[in-house]
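A quick word before the example. In earlier lectures we treated sequence and structure as two separate objects. From today on, think of them as two lines of the same record. Here is Large ribosomal subunit protein uL23 written that way.
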Amino acid sequence: MNQERVFKVLLAPHITEKAAMASQAGNQIVFKVATDATKLEIKKAVQQLFNVQVEDVRVANVKGKTRRTRTGLGRRSDWRKAYVRLADGQEIDFAVAE
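And the structure line, produced from the sequence above:
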């Protein structure tokens, strides 16, 4: 996979309470990913960027919510998230050291 595609597949880590529970219980990290990304692309991108061994990737398509605004109804965009399970002893630290 070329380096340009690696940066387009992974958009951002998804930090929520549910993601924190998955991280503690199953050594999983949750990422927001491109809507056209495949499981294999996600696996390769995480391995290349963070130098970790990935065991499993599960993806979920999240439907955008309909919201009422001052001008009428609006809709948030659909997006995709990936649950990436790391091998035992592997970890990714997103904390910024200053």
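Notice the following. Residues 39-50 form the longest helix (12 residues). We will return to this example when we discuss secondary structure assignment.
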